Amino acid sequence: MSRFSVGGMIELEGLTKRYGEKVAVNNLTFTVRPGIVTGFLGPNGAGKSTTMRMVLGLDHPTVGDVRIDGKHYDQLKDPLTYIGALLEAKAWHGGRSAFNHLLCLAQSNGIPRSRVRQVLETVGLTAVAKKKTKGFSMGMGQRLGIAGALLGDPRILMFDEPVNGLDPEGIHWIRNLMKSLAAQGRTVFVSSHLMSEMALTADHLVVIGQGRLLADTSMADFIERNSRSYVRIRTPQRERLLDVLHTAGTTAVESGDGTLEVDGSKAEQIGELAARHGIVLHELSPQQASLEEAFMQLTAESVEYHAHADTPRREQRQVQQSWGNEWRRS
Amino acid sequence: MAATQVVRSEWTKIRSVASTVWTLSLAVVVTIALGMLISGLSANEFDNMSERDRLSFDPTFISFAGMSLGQLALIVFGVLVVSNEYSTGMIRTSLAAVPRRGTFLASKIAVATGLALVVGLATSFVTFFLGQAMLGEHRAEIGDPGVLRAVIGGGLYMALIAMFSMGVAAMLRSPMLSLGILMPFFFLVSNILGNVSATEKIGRYLPDQAGSKIMQVVTPVDDETPYGPWGGLGIMVLWVIAALVGGYVTLRKRDA
């Protein structure tokens, strides 16, 4: 049973933010629900941080609306007890100690002082609680930001690129933290520009590019649709091979450039089958469409800052493959 | 959201950064030390003064001479209290915790002004008594007509200068820009405008010139200032209100 039976919804409706001519967020409509981790995915500059700032009422939407449980952010009484947020970069005074930073936040929302010690313990900063935050490493800074988000024990948590700057141990910790928060029935809304990261943590996926909504789907659906593995075959004896495959109960699909694609079979099996029937094969290669590739394809047209065109294509693909495979291994 | 919560939070903020301590201590030390120095020099100078200057001799006002420099430290205090939020990125955290921007700004200004007032009043009294001690036989007594008003007025003046700086900083956001405008204005521009006869009439309506009238006990000979001590402080209060309204409108309208 979840701890929170009602509430915890973030609803965006036609949310739009323009800076002069430039449209940073373009007519976004979607709902973030409790009990799951919702990944907010998009290339750098897609408008993720701007959207999150509008959720918190920091930036004013040009058009549209965003509500938390039906209310505007500034209508929430003690907002930190409804929604806790980790914002991008550091958002505190470096001359103040971690303890005092959290204490002033707690006091403004009527949260007891004892809770400050509790969250410092949770994020593992107790030992440096009295130290000025300007000496903090990036990872410690992220932990302090997360402590601030947890402070009000809110039912909604919003993290903007939380794994940035964390070491592997820290990344592992934040992944588990997000999952356990969602398992408690809370709403977890987390942004990232890395598909592989989302594949590991998110149950639901909202993809944006250049401020526009590109996908709003469950992670399972996204994987099913986008991560198929298949065998690609080229042969001068297409008809015969198709017959043989058909007899063996395997369906082959003809792809555009005259090759055949077979889903769900091993290349070895097809090779042996072809050899038994004396069919010549010019190509027999196992293929895998990675999630990262699917994401790149989805956002390709909307990527604002393209890498240089002369970057070796193959290298890119290899990197993508290994990223895409990561979610399978773990 | 209860305003008392936000006030408590702003108090934690202001007491937990080093700049509060050093700006306020600097204001205290400079005001008192310079006031004593000038009081001492004036006492020595008295015998050589013309009859006219002797008639205008204002021992109370002389002991507050250090405020012309001490106020600069208070300006830094006021500017940093507000603009540090922006320069450090804290403003995003602060407004996420207190989304009612009016409540946020009012609490911050109330806390900082309260602190400046306490420090200002203490400084004012100490400056007066030490300055009078330096003036020796030419000194004024706290019981003399208008003197207590001037001494309390000195504290009010310091608090108002800090408030004015906070309003300007809320409009401009950047600490460097705010200081770059306020410091030369109060240290140079205002003095020049107030002492050149062509601009004197305008100069006397500037916040510091008008406000410092409250610290005057003896009206100088041939003085044509059209307002009294409280009138002058009133003019300063109008400037402060204008700056704070400007700051509030900016905070209200702009993205954090």
UniProtKB/TrEMBL annotation, chain B:
Keyword Membrane in annotation: yes
Coiled coil: none
Membrane-spanning parts: 21-41, 61-82, 109-130, 150-172, 179-198, 230-251
Keyword Ribonucleoprotein: no
Pfam families: ABC2_membrane_4
Keyword field: Membrane, Transmembrane, Transmembrane helix
Name the UniProt record assigns to this protein: ABC transporter
